[in-house]
């Protein structure tokens, strides 16, 4: 991709999107709200983890973040100025149900009540995610996602939020990226709660799926108004690094563990046989009980797809060995090489998004999709007024929206594109140094300044909507 401009055919593809195609932006509670100890909110696993020395770059925490909790009406006004038709946000569990059990905290729920009214008042569709990684610390102390009971606690919490907001919010996403909660949080140790055990990670995936399924049933049971029910997964492709059998086998394992582990139980009601065998070879069993998969495969209306990048899979390590110290086959993710990268070093591969969406359409037919996150961190340089001429991010968004349009034209049922993120924010283990926002946040003053990419998205949404 040219560094400073967009692909020439992007505009033509985007221009053919239907007027009803959803264009908006996303955020999450811990990354923007701040007010970590206000109005009864208790600690989440990210409040705890961000205080572990070395866990987050620069020792950053979400204590203040973008101070959105206090600036919400202005932020919603900004969204309206930017012409967003949809805003995806998450509810902080420890704000509305401190400690993760028991009755709702009225002050916490009232915040989201006001947010929803503010959005609706400005003609913006609220898209609510129930869980974007901020598990109440008390539930972590009781085992967190490795404990089956957490799934039941989540269903109670989901019902509590839905009771209050279900009359006005139609779009409900249960979970954001179970892969990150389970694998980054329990296997790789880089996200809260910082565990390093494959068995824990596998148990966490299953309990997250169960949490989704139990909550889906509870929300479906409340028929006050039609519900658009979704779950969001972080997805990519995992092509073999070469045609060698070891690499092809590694790609199969990566696809089983990183892709089908998430979509098969939800959309097919079972775990993949090859995944079960791969895990059994490591002495690990998915803790499934009778009836779980029926709950987990409760029909959804929309699959949320978060896409950032993909890796190639290699079946050998740096020294060419195809088994590790425990005698297990090597599965190693490698960059594709020769591609531009974002500020985080993530390869920019919009063509792969088209491929991914077509694969989902082919392998899981009949599932409408929405891109619930897509975006890039770059090393923004503001001018004296705080304006960022972020041509690279603009090009990134344009190329990815065009990639979605290309997939649609080839038959994938994709109904919207929500950019990550509305605001620069707390980027988890990278802290505030990595900026994904359409809008710059000066953290010292909390001043918001829309970047070039925000203006581009506004103009694009306007053009798409302008046609009948
Ligand atoms: C996704 C997360 C989101 C943000 C982006 C960059 O995995 O859902 O909160 O951190 O990555």
UniProtKB/TrEMBL annotation:
Entry keyword Cell membrane: no
Coiled coil segments of this chain: none
Entry keywords, A to Z: Carbohydrate metabolism, Cellulose degradation, Glycosidase, Hydrolase, Polysaccharide degradation
EC number: 3.2.1.21
Enzyme class: hydrolase
GO molecular function, one term: beta-glucosidase activity
Catalytic activity: Hydrolysis of terminal, non-reducing beta-D-glucosyl residues with release of beta-D-glucose
InterPro entries named in the record: GH, Glyco_hydro_1, Glyco_hydro_1_beta-glucosidase
UniProt record similarity statement: Belongs to the glycosyl hydrolase 1 family.
Protein name in UniProt: Beta-glucosidase
Organism the protein comes from: Streptomyces omiyaensis
């Amino acid at each position: 991709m040219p560094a400073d401009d967009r692909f020439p055919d992007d505009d033509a593809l985007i221009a053919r999107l239907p007027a009803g195609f959803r264009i908006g932006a996303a955020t999450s509670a811990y990354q923007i709200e701040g007010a970590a100890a206000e109005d009864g909110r208790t600690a989440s696993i990210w409040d705890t983890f961000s205080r572990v020395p070395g866990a987050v770059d620069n020792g950053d925490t979400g204590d203040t973040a973008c101070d959105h909790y206090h600036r919400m009406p202005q932020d919603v006004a900004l969204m309206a100025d930017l012409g967003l038709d949809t805003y995806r946000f998450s509810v902080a569990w420890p704000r509305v149900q401190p400690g993760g059990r028991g009755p709702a905290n009225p002050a916490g729920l009232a915040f989201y009540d006001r947010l929803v009214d503010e959005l609706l008042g400005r003609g913006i569709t609220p898209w609510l995610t129930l869980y974007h990684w901020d598990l109440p610390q008390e539930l972590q102390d009781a085992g967190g996602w490795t404990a089956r009971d957490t799934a039941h606690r989540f269903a109670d919490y989901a019902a509590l939020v839905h009771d209050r907001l279900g009359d006005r919010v139609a779009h409900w996403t249960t979970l954001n990226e179970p892969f990150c909660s389970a694998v980054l949080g329990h296997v790789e140790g880089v996200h809260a709660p910082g565990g390093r055990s494959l068995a824990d990670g596998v148990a966490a995936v299953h309990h997250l799926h169960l949490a989704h399924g139990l909550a889906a049933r509870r929300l479906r049971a409340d028929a006050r108004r039609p519900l658009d029910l979704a779950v969001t997964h972080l997805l990519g492709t995992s092509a073999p690094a070469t045609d060698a059998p070891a690499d092809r086998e590694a790609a199969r394992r990566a696809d089983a563990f990183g892709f089908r582990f998430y979509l098969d139980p939800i959309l097919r009601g079972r775990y993949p046989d090859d995944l079960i065998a791969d895990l059994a070879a490591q002495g690990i069993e998915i803790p499934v009980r009778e009836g779980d998969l029926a709950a987990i495969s409760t029909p959804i209306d929309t699959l949320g797809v978060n896409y950032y990048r993909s890796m190639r899979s290699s079946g050998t390590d740096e020294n060419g060995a195809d088994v590790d110290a425990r005698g297990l086959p090597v599965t190693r993710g490698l960059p594709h090489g020769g591609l531009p990268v974002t500020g985080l070093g993530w390869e920019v591969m919009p063509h792969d998004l088209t491929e991914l969406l077509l694969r989902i359409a082919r392998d899981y037919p009949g599932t409408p999709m929405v891109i619930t996150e897509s975006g890039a961190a770059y090393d923004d340089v503001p001018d004296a007024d705080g304006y960022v001429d972020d041509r690279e991010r603009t090009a990134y968004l344009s190329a990815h929206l065009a990639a979605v349009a290309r997939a649609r034209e080839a038959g994938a049922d994709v109904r919207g594109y929500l950019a990550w993120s509305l605001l620069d924010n707390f980027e988890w283990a990278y802290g505030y140094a990595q900026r994904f926002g359409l809008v710059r946040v000066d953290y010292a003053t909390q001043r918001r300044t829309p970047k070039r990419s925000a203006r581009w998205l506004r103009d694009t949404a306007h053009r798409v909507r302008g046609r009948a």
